[in-house]
Amino acid sequence: MPKAQLDALLKDKAALTKVLTYHVVPGKGDGRRREGRQGEEQLQGSGLTVSTTGGVMVDKAKVVKTDIHASNGV
Q1: Could you report the per-residue pLDDT of 27-40, keeping only the tens digit for each?
Q2: Which H, E and C letters describe 3-25, residue by residue?
Q3: How far is CA 60 from the centre of its chain?
């Protein structure tokens, strides 16, 4: 992301919240337990599909590293 775009996003709390919550799915579960689930909803409200054909995919995006455990979730 270009610096100017990032700076603008950091100044716009509503836009930043939308971007960040797009990348969070509520609940606990690793990639294997989410396989094949369709219409799973992110905090932002959109739906997504998880598959493991040819690696873990979320919609059409390839996940490069799965199941990173942290104190606030996976």
Answers
A1: 666 655 555 555 56
A2: HHHHHHHHHCHHHHHHHHHHCCC
A3: 12
